Amino acid sequence: MKRYVLSLSRRCFPNLSSSELGSTPSVFSFFFVGSLSHNFSSLGLTGTSRPFPDYSAKKPTIADSELVLHISTTIKQRRYEPLRRVLKPFESKFRSDHLIWVLMRIKNDYQLVIDFFNWACLRKDPTLEARCIVVQIAVSSKHPKTAHELIRDFWVKPNLDIGLSFSHFIEHLIYTYKDWGSDPLVFDIFFQVLVEAGTFDEARKLFDKMLNYGVVISVDSCNLLLSRLSNTSTGVDKALYFFSEFPDMGVCWNTASHNIITHILCRSGKLKEAHSLLLKMESKGCFPDVISYSTLVDGYCRAGELEIAVGLIGEMGLKGFKPNAFTYNSIIVFLCKNSQVVEAERVLREMMTHGIAPDNVVYTALVDAFCKLGNLQAASRLSNEMQNRQIDPDNITYTALICGFCRSGKMAEAEKLFHEMLGKQLNPDEVTYTALIDGYCKAGQMKEAFAVHNQMVQMGLIPNIVTYTALADGLCKQGDLETANELLHEMCSKGLELNVYTYNSLINGICKAGNIVQAVKLKEDMELAGLHPDTITYTTLMDAYCKSGDMVHAHELLSEMLDKGLQPTVVTFNVLMNGFCISGMLEDAKRLLSWMQEKGIKPNSTTYNSLMKQYCIGNDMRSTTELYKGMCTQGVIPDCNTYNILIKGHCKARNMKEAWYLHKEMVSKGFSLRVSSYNTLIKGLFKKKRFAESRELFDEMRREGLVADKEIYNYFVDLNYDEGNIEMILELCDEAIEKCLILMVTDAFDILTLLIYNHVINLLQI
């Protein structure tokens, strides 16, 4: 009991030395024995621990004793010969009983015990008693890993009767404890094996049984139980119960224990309880660490409470803790999910300046977020940076990039990434294949889309309703309604039911094909099938009417939608805004914007872009600038379209200083100019004789692989001629030929090339 008292006191008072513990045995004995007596009484147990039984093996016969002596002497005297050779003469007479008798003679030589046990196991399965004896010897010889393997090997046997096996194993472990090891760690190891195997009920039975013998399972092993329980659907409540119950039985929870429970509470959405636990840790003799704070930060980020999360990071700093990779990851992932990607990348850079290396999760989150915003240049840049840092992209990273390129209609790049993914032995899943299929369908490449569908099926993947919807949508956009209808029948025959999303996709495809009448009929069929059109259904149809200039029918649909109790979204209003702008009804568009703001419906960048584009077309840059300033005041973040519209508008109005400033601002935010915007800006700067800026943009355009138009090539041929740079003139000519051949595949020879060459020849002749 004294041994147990000292052991338990070390767990509860780790800062006290052995001499300090040993110098006051009466005080500690009184405290712990009294405490345990109280705890055991609450369990219906007496204050005195049950003693471990004495071990008494079966007595060998004289003949057996002689054989055991010969075997023991032989294996002790062997030099470097393998056991199988020196023991070959004894194989025919060797029985399982002999194993234990030999172990008694060699138990002080751990390596010999293990070698002999392994030799015996090759002849016959050892008895449970023999296995437990070797486990005890391994633990007492400071080889817990071997003990763990010996118990695990028994516990993972097929067709194991868990209940019966547990009873037998613990009985033999207790029976062999006193004379073969007497190290309580053996029960900890058995407890860990039970937890790792997922046999939590048996682990709890072992915990309770050992209390009868005065042994408390260590806090580290109990932490393992809490951690494994937290990963099961039914184990969370048990983990919380054990956390509150075990201290009454002698378990002294540590910081790691509290961190596990904090994680459980955060994942269960109980953030107030998790925060309260963090604040109470110190009163329990535990001190929060960086993991404690980071776990809570992650919980608040997942709940969308960024302000509280940032406050906790500040509190960490006051306590001298530096945020770790997990802390930064939580913030970055939150920002990415909320489309605040530029801010997320700033956090990434800050993280790296503190010497913390980002991992695959962070880079993939950023890549995915940039792809969803359509900023493929930034996504590709991060992907390349990731690989340069020796961080391998996984299936999710590649799928995010493929989805992004497919959404942008860049199928050549998406296909290249797909083959690169296959080359790295990464297996695409249904999402990857469906993204490619959808991309090809949107690009009108139905042959390629069905080829990918067939490849998907050959890989053993089952197309889902999203896959079929993409194919049907592509067929509808090409006007092939008959094939689309056949595909839908095939989908239904496979047990997949048409849903609102399928109908919406089909209606969208038919609208894109310009058949509004057929789209309206499909909406009616949808209602006959018992499905209710939603906001997306009405918005899609309204968009088709708006683009055709039929604002009367668009307004009728809006009224019908409101009558059915459906709430319009910002996309609905954007559709109407675009319709008013296309029809030249700018006053109605402005009134719609004011109405949205009055009703608390926050416009987005698309809302403002439609209006600004029309004002730019009318060369009204004053109104455009007012709208832009109002947009920023409202907290609406400009997107790539916003900057391209503004830059082209200012170039048209010859406000080159403003256009150049906007270009710098958009680049700093990770956006890129479109080809038309590059051409417009370069021409405007060139006409203002700002040759350095125009050259910088032209070089940037060439690096991006974008094609400038004929006039810009002529500008720079003239400029390089004036500078006497004949080599650059020829390089530009060659480049123009190459670009034009790529662009105009059907022409035998490009007129642009002739014009440039003639222009150069004329210049050289002069």
What can you see in these coordinates?
With 766 residues, the chain is mostly helical. Among the domains are: 2-42, no CATH class; 53-184; 707-766, no CATH class. The chain contains 43 helices and no strands. Helix 15 packs antiparallel against helix 16 (271-280) and helix 31 packs antiparallel against helix 32.
Q: From the alpha-carbon coordinates, what is the Rg to the nearest angstrom?
A: 38 Å
For the report, how would you describe the main beta sheet? none
**Low-confidence spans:** 1-46, 741-752
Number of helices: 43
Mean pLDDT: 84
Strand content: under 5%
> Could you give the count of β-strands?
0
Category by helix and strand content: mainly alpha
Question: Helical content, roughly?
Answer: over 70%
Question: What is the terminal separation in angstroms?
Answer: 109 Å
Question: What's the quaternary structure here?
Answer: single chain
Global outline = elongated
Organism: Protea cynaroides
Family: Belongs to the PPR family. P subfamily.
InterPro entries: PPR_P_subfamily (IPR050872), PPR_rpt (IPR002885), TPR-like_helical_dom_sf (IPR011990)
Keywords: Repeat
What is the strand and helix layout of this fold?
Layout: H1 2-12, H2 18-23, H3 25-42, H4 62-77, H5 83-86, H6 96-106, H7 110-123, H8 128-140, H9 144-155, H10 162-180, H11 185-196, H12 200-212, H13 219-230, H14 236-245, H15 255-267, H16 271-280, H17 290-302, H18 306-318, H19 325-337, H20 341-353, H21 360-372, H22 376-388, H23 395-407, H24 411-423, H25 430-442, H26 446-458, H27 465-477, H28 481-493, H29 500-512, H30 516-528, H31 535-547, H32 551-563, H33 570-582, H34 586-598, H35 605-617, H36 621-633, H37 640-652, H38 656-668, H39 675-687, H40 691-703, H41 710-722, H42 726-743, H43 751-765
Family: Belongs to the PPR family. P subfamily.
InterPro entries: PPR_P_subfamily, PPR_rpt, TPR-like_helical_dom_sf
Organism: Protea cynaroides
